[in-house]
Amino acid sequence: xxxxxxxxxxxxxxxxxxxxxxxxxxxxxxxxxxxxxxxxxxxxxxxxxxxxxxxxxxxxxxxxxxxxxxxxxxxxxxxxxxxxxxxxxxxxxxxxxxxxxxxxxxxxxxxxxxxxxxxxxxxxxxxxxxxxxxxxxxxxxxxxxxxxxxxxxxxxxxxxxxxxxxxxxxxxxxxxxxxxxxxxxxxxxxxxxxxxxxxxxxxxxxxxxxxxxxxxxxxxxxxxxxxxxxxxxxxxxxxxxxxxxxxxxxxxxxxxxxxxxxxxxxxxxxxxxxxxxxxxxxxxxxxxxxxxxxxxxxxxxxxxxxxxxxxxxxxxxxxxxxxxxxxxxxxxxxxxxxxxxxxxxxxxxxxxxxxxxxxxxxxxxxxxxxxxxxxxxxxxxxxxxxxxxxxxxxxxxxxxxxxxxxxxxxxxxxxxxxxxxxxxxxxxxxxx
Amino acid sequence: xxxxxxxxxxxxxxxxxxxxxxxxxxxxxxxxxxxxxxxxxxxxxxxxxxxxxxxxxxxxxxxxxxxxxxxxxxxxxxxxxxxxxxxxxxxxxxxxxxxxxxxxxxxxxxxxxxxxxxxxxxxxxxxxxxxxxxxxxxxxxxxxxxxxxxxxxxxxxxxxxxxxxxxxxxxxxxxxxxxxxxxxxxxxxxxxxxxxxxxxxxxxxxxxxxxxxxxxxxxxxxxxxxxxxxxxxxxxxxxxxxxxxxxxxxxxxxxxxxxxxxxxxxxxxxxxxxxxxxxxxxxxxxxxxxxxxxxxxx
Lengths: 432, 298
Fold this sequence. Notes:
- The complex is a heterodimer.
- Chain A is α/β, with parallel strands linked by helices.
- Helices cover 21% and strands 34% of the residues of chain A.
- Chain A folds into two domains: 64-255, P-loop containing nucleotide triphosphate hydrolases (Rossmann fold, 3-Layer(aba) Sandwich), CATH 3.40.50.300; 267-398, Coagulation Factor XIII, Chain A, domain 1 (Distorted Sandwich), CATH 2.70.50.
- In chain A, strand 18 (369-380) and strand 19 form a beta hairpin.
- Chain B has one domain (39-297).
């Protein structure tokens, strides 16, 4: 048991700044820079002249990342946007070559960085299943064997011989995912593909993946969906600015990730304004979860209201701002979105300065469990998203068994995504 | 060599550690690291991905004429229409000689290998950029993309050969045993197309200018190949240099095999053999070298 499936040693990947946006040079640029260097007009640091790239023009998407994954382990990879997660996956799936360091892989790898890679609208569902399956590394015979299962999983039986361009987007995604879900690699690399499809389908995909994990296959799973990560993975690594910041049991690493600011899961502050999420007009400086009496806490009594406090700065005056908060439970169910409708500021341009907006979620409303809070701030007219901070904070709703919450005297599992304390009215209509 | 995303910055670690590791069972073990220096084709890996090549060829074939009214007839119409244009302009108006053969047949015999070659180069030249989503999301030997576009037009060629045989029958030109040598010339055309497309498709990833230049390149190439005129029109002293163009040899070969004209010069054939061998070899090296940064640059 516990053979090493993947060993990553000192993995680093360097990109030229803007290598993604300004992804291809032109011959003209090359010729111009060559000419310039010939006649002595050498602009040493010009970006387009690749030959003269100064060290400051490059950045490390991954820097000295090392870890090992045992066979059968499900490894979650978390980190904020641009932390190097995708680059790591691309290196693992051999799409991009590391700048230095090495990866050793034992076993057949399939990577799912996108669903439906290679799907062609003109081809029928059947043809696309074969094409996509082959691209993902399945053998024809294998696809034939699983074909019915794939089609049934995607629920597109009647349309197998229809070109996929006539599919609804949901059908298209379901079929694409179904092919991927039937891969049988020893090592599976999955990037956020679960962020697609309707909820019930997402649940089936998660279920399918849990099944895959139980078969002793090694899985790398990248997601912004903390609940999914904690459910699927026993271990996680946390990447930040290309470096490995934490590696260990999933709960600890998720905590480390959530706590990056200060204090606890329920409080995030960005002390360095340059690193704070934001745009040209506004930036987020802090998000806190507060109880009625002002304490910043991660444990909330189900009966008590909970306040989510956003602190942000308006850098450029004259815009109408719309702070917004979204709540997700630990299963990833999107509970609600709430926009700041405070009449004092609604439709009013903000002047430069620091603001604090707090939204109060009433007591006896949320169900128990961990709640993840997404925060975003946009301007209205024109509508520009300034920042979207997923899982900015999280808190735990705890149901007491005192008998005065919605569960009453029942102490067992109490399902439902909300748990409102509703008014009941019972009258006796007479005796039998 | 410029320093771009993905170029070597530090020497990779040594391999000692790997050699000491015992590989469990008979699992396939893959080492991913920066491999500097010249690289050669991993034939075993290509063989492993043969089904993918088949799938890519089939996709190209199926998709090509979807949602067209006359569908696959286009395959035959393209050389047929070009033949008519050539006959009118070069045969009738410019009165180009055709070595005593009826001009339409003379032109069509050359147009078939030429159409194949230009299709193969044009389609494979943009194969990588056109499939950027595959290149940046999935690992497979990248060479399969241009390769699939070299193979797919072979089907078009086979179909239009039927047309050509019909024309030959109509013109009363008998088929001889020489027809059996056609595959050899087709292979030369294929290899030449592969050699070119390895350079063009790889360079196109980084310099999109190449994509715009392909149609012109192909057009110029056609005029330096004996498509509209016979080789006998080329002055004797230039013949050898003319033969350096492998497509000249291919077209001459087609005319020899089908129309019974003079056999291609041995010296010329040797020269073009040397040229396309070098082309393919250099193309493979260039492609492998560029392949390492495709995903970063595309």
